[in-house]
Task: structure prediction
Amino acid sequence: RCSQSAKIDGARRVTRTCEQFSTIADRRKTRDELAMGDPKGFLKYAREGPKRKPIELRVLDWKEMYEPIPEEKLKVQGARCMDCGVPFCQGNTGCPVVNLIPEWNDLVYRGRWKDALKALHTTNNFPEFTGRLCPAPCEGACVLGINSDPVSIRVLEWNIIDRGFNEGLVEPALPVRKTGKTVAIIGSGPAGLAAAQQLARAGHSVTVFEKADRIGGLLRYGIPDFKMEKWVIDRRLEQMTAEGVEFKTGVTVGKDVTGEQLRQEFDAVGLTMGAEMARDLPVPGRDLAGIHFAM
Result:
């Protein structure tokens, strides 16, 4: 650093500090350190996603069908992020939960996995769900996709969170104080679970009611295991239980307990149920035998 002094009104002096660059190399080094990932990564590296397990192994079980990706390959994919002036992968044009995608792409490239996890959890309670199941509108909005393959955003997302769990970095987040308020959440799908977790972390006492025998809603009974194995849900539920969320299964609100009872017992009630009305398609052959709703 260097110091610059100047006289004010011929008497008082002020001192300000500045970065002193003695050589052009110093300037270039600092510029590159502030740059997003590898400034030329999108020119040097091709998109690469996870490889599917061999078919002869896939047919033996219903488990997830992708093989693990080495860390170095994940860093390369993070390096493809371009530091766009306007990152269309975020916001209304891309990710609906406004994930900090360029930030954690850069952090993965730099090997700062713990910081990448913090950035990921800043906007998303359950990146292990969205990373596996989301149709990735962020990738469709990726600027690199205009004339090349987009960044492998979704793959980076689920690898950040899985690494966080594997390394013990995902821990219960307990409130500083309890509010004394109680909240009932009806429905244990992703919306209900996210609401329950946020409310519990704010200090409220939260109870989740689910009519099925297990927690998870469509995550549990609407998503096949090859897309997401159910231990992915269970490990997150362990965290939420440690945070104080209470789960009650086999309870149909409106039958086993009335809405009025919940309003009397709880300070607030959250309605996070699915519509449960299947969308029919009036197409030729709809009336044939063996045609059923998927959900």
Observations:
- The CA atoms of residues 23 and 29 lie 10 Å apart.
- Confidence is low (pLDDT under 50) at residues 1-32.
- The two ends are 65 Å apart (CA to CA).
